[in-house]
């Protein structure tokens, strides 16, 4: 800070007044008269000049150049007896420029030392005050900051003074005109005969006491112009001007601010680390500033109580209760924290984080899988039913639509989430139910019925092959059976023709003009199974015909279409057969019979079943596969068991085939769906591993539960004395080794002996057989290791077979008519030999 000089009474002098020590004034060499002012410059002296404080006044008018030469310097004056009085520098009037300006001292590097003693004597006393020219007073001007500093006595040429040195004292010469004054240095007038640089005191100024020289105050100064600090008459550049640009306040201040802000930013980054950003809020819980693990634990703890309560879900009229914790619903704290924004390195983002909150949606697991939601959806959801067309026979009608509804599962999950986090368990959670609009309206369906369906069912369509070799008529019934209706993308009801249903309705008419296709099949040669390739047929392609029919449905009768004959693929192609995995024998079983009639029926049913193919997952039914078993199919009457007794019926004896097939199923490891054993034990069958069938009442069913197909191969071998043997073999991919373990026979029951009247010869005698209980176990073993995989038991309880003895019964005698006439008299019989009696004939 600049120090202001003090007055003798201790008050502070204004900045524009500086009291410097006086310098001895040389005696003028000419009589006192008005001398033209010259530029202030130091002249020769007996000793160095004392420090002189220069004053920087506000800008003043430029003084005119001098017109007379500078007088020669006077002879040195002897020293005065007493010090000269200090001269106060006075600011000139702002409006009138003065002829000469006072020398302006440049800023000193260090403050001048305080004067310890009065000013040194000068060569000659100063002229009387009366001879001193009064100093022109300065005009009033605004206060300004002074940068003037004291100048030491031994000060040399001022840096920046560009004016030539003054001429010698003995050689008068013209004084160069001063350069225009561009700075704020004040002009000072000198009295006539006063040397430039001499500062005589004004008459009223008291002598200044010896005191330390005050530091020159700093102030404004002009940097331009000849008399500025950097000009020829200036005092040199100021301290501020000599500073490097990077040390100026205009640069240092923002740099310092950036350093402070950068330091604060760095500290904030280091302190925050990987913590959750400040002001991060989850459902009202602030987790900002916590580590991820601590934030996750905080969230799970805060909401734990709410997840343990019971809530009620309500969707329309339906409602269900659920326990979030029991149903696997929980807040996933780690995933919720992971969804929060990471610590940003953007300074602006970190700064705004102090004032803004970051809302993070909580992550709940298990909300979409709440069992109560599935139950509510089953009760609430109702599929929309589009308007369509129904055909009864050949009569079409419109079926009106029905709007549907559905539980909005996504919105329901949001509602449940909000209730679990901020709701009250006592309040039901209402779940939104949406209305599902129909795609086809009733009016649209009616339009299709009028424009397409009605004319389409008005008459048959004639189909001609492209080569003219065949002509087929598609009847109205076939068209009606194959029509389909579905909503289109534009909301219209689309009419189509199903090729499969059309082919079924047309039957053999489509292939009558071509050749029928042959399916791939399997055959066994030398105990090995192989695929016989399929053969494509030719005929009218049902798919091509269906496409052509759709185009002519709206047309009026008569209508016809032309279709090329094309290949008709087989129902089972070679590739499909090979993909079934039928490559080896998986089981086989054989039984025998001695009855010729039963043998006939067994042969017939074996021939019907031979070549059966059971695809993966299909169930085989013997009654369904063979259909009716009557005389028309080649069956004959044979023994059956009816009511626990033997009798005869057409198709009897095929239970032996059923028993043979059941054992093939048993040892193949296939699934037994249904079988029934005989009422009493028949010795030619394995106990507990046999089956009976009866058309329309008792069936044999088994399922192919493998991933491959099962091919059934049967054979009948007649015996020379009657009867024969039947064998059933299954081919596929073997899965198990099967063992059969028959348990002990228990709980024997004795047969009864019965006599059965036989009036017509239909009675069949029976030999009594004991009844018993038996259990058979099927054990499944691994093919490679033989280890047991599982087992299955079959329990059977046989009734005792009664012993039947047939008793012939004579036909009843004819009744006697009492009204009948008596028989006619005849000749008397001849007398017999004596002692002989007629022997009557025994009946039966």
TrEMBL record:
Residues 146-156 have a biased composition (Basic and acidic residues). It comes from the Bacteria. Residues 373-425, 476-555 form the YoaR-like putative peptidoglycan binding domain. Residues 82-117, 129-143, 827-837 have a biased composition (Low complexity). InterPro entries: Glycopeptide_resist_protein (IPR052913), Vancomycin_resist_VanW (IPR007391), YoaR-like_PG-bd (IPR022029). Residues 21-35, 45-81, 118-128, 162-179, 198-215, 809-826 have a biased composition (Pro residues). Residues 1-15 have a biased composition (Polar residues). Residues 1-242, 808-844 are annotated as: Disordered. PANTHER family: EXPORTED PROTEIN (PTHR35788:SF1), EXPORTED PROTEIN-RELATED (PTHR35788). This is Vancomycin resistance protein YoaR, contains peptidoglycan-binding and VanW domains.
């Amino acid at each position: 800070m600049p120090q202001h000089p003090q007055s003798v009474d201790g008050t502070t002098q204004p900045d524009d007044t500086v009291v410097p020590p006086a310098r001895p004034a040389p005696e003028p060499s000419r009589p006192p008269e008005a001398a033209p002012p010259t530029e202030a410059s130091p002249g020769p002296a007996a000793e160095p000049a004392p420090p002189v404080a220069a004053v920087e006044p506000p800008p003043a008018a430029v003084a005119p150049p001098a017109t007379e030469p500078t007088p020669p310097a006077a002879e040195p004056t002897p020293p005065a007896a007493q010090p000269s009085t200090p001269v106060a520098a006075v600011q000139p009037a702002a409006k009138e420029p003065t002829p000469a300006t006072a020398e302006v001292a440049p800023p000193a590097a260090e403050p001048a030392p305080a004067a310890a003693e009065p000013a040194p004597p000068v060569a000659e006393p100063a002229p009387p005050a009366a001879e001193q020219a009064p100093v022109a007073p300065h005009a009033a001007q605004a206060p300004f900051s002074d940068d003037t500093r004291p100048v030491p006595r031994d000060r040399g040429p001022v840096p920046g003074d560009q004016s030539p040195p003054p001429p010698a004292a003995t050689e008068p010469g013209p004084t160069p005109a001063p350069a225009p004054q561009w700075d704020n240095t004040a002009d000072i007038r000198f009295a006539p005969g006063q040397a430039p640089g001499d500062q005589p005191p004004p008459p009223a100024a008291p002598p200044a006491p010896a005191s330390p020289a005050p530091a020159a105050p700093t102030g404004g100064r002009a940097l331009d112009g000849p008399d500025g600090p950097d000009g020829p008459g200036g005092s040199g550049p100021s301290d501020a001007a000599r500073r490097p640009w990077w040390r100026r306040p205009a640069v240092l201040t923002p740099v310092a601010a950036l350093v402070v802000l950068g330091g604060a930013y760095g500290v904030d980054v280091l302190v925050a680390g990987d913590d959750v950003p400040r002001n991060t809020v989850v459902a009202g819980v602030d987790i900002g500033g916590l580590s991820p693990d601590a934030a996750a634990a905080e969230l799970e703890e805060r909401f734990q109580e709410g997840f343990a309560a019971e809530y009620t879900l309500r969707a329309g009229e339906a409602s269900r209760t659920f326990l979030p914790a029991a149903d696997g619903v929980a807040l996933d704290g780690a995933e919720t924290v992971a969804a929060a924004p990471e610590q940003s390195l953007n300074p602006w983002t970190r700064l705004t984080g102090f004032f803004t909150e970051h809302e993070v949606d909580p992550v709940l697991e298990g909300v979409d899988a709440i069992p109560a939601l599935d139950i509510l959806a089953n009760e609430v959801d109702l599929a929309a039913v589009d308007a369509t067309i129904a055909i009864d026979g050949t009569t079409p009608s419109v079926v009106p639509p029905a709007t549907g509804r559905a539980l909005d599962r996504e919105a329901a999950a949001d509602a449940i989430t909000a209730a679990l986090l901020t709701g009250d368990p006592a309040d039901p959670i209402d779940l939104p139910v949406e209305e599902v609009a129909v795609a086809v309206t009733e009016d649209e369906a009616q339009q299709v019925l009028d424009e397409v369906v009605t004319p389409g069912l008005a008459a048959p369509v004639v189909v001609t092959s492209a080569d003219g070799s065949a002509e087929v008529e598609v009847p109205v019934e076939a068209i009606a059976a194959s029509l389909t209706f579905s909503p289109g993308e534009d909301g219209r009801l689309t009419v189509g023709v199903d090729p499969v249903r059309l082919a079924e309705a047309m039957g053999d008419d489509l292939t009558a003009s071509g050749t029928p296709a042959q399916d791939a099949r399997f055959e066994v040669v030398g105990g090995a199974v192989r695929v016989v390739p399929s053969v494509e047929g030719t005929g009218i392609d049902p798919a091509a015909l269906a496409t052509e029919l759709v185009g002519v449905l709206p047309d009026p009768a008569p209508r016809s279409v032309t279709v090329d004959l094309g290949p008709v693929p087989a129902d089972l192609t070679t590739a499909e057969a090979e993909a079934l995995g039928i490559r080896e024998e998986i089981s086989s079983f054989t039984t025998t019979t001695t009855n010729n009639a039963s043998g006939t029926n067994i042969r017939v049913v074996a021939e019907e079943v031979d070549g059966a193919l059971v695809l993966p997952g299909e169930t085989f039914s013997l009654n369904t596969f063979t259909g009716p078993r009557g005389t028309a199919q080649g069956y004959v009457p044979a023994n059956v068991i009816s009511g626990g007794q033997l009798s005869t019926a057409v198709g009897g004896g095929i239970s032996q085939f059923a028993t043979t097939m059941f054992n093939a199923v048993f040892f193949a490891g296939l699934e037994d769906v249904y079988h029934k054993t005989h009422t009493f034990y028949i010795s030619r069958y394995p106990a507990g591993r046999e089956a009976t069938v009866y058309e329309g009442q008792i069936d044999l069913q088994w399922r192919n539960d493998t991933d491959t197909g099962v091919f059934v191969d049967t054979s009948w071998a007649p015996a020379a004395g009657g009867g024969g043997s039947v064998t059933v073999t299954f081919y596929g991919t073997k899965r198990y080794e099967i063992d059969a373990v028959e348990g002990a026979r228990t709980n024997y029951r004795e047969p009864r002996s019965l006599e059965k009247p036989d009036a017509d010869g239909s009675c069949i005698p029976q030999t009594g057989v004991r009844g018993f209980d038996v259990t058979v176990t099927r054990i499944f073993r691994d093919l490679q290791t033989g280890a047991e995989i599982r087992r299955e038991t079959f329990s059977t309880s046989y009734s005792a077979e009664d012993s039947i003895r047939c008793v012939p019964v004579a036909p009843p005698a004819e009744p006697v008519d009492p009204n009948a006439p008596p028989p006619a008299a005849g000749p008397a019989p001849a007398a017999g030999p004596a002692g002989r009696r007629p022997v009557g004939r025994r009946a039966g």
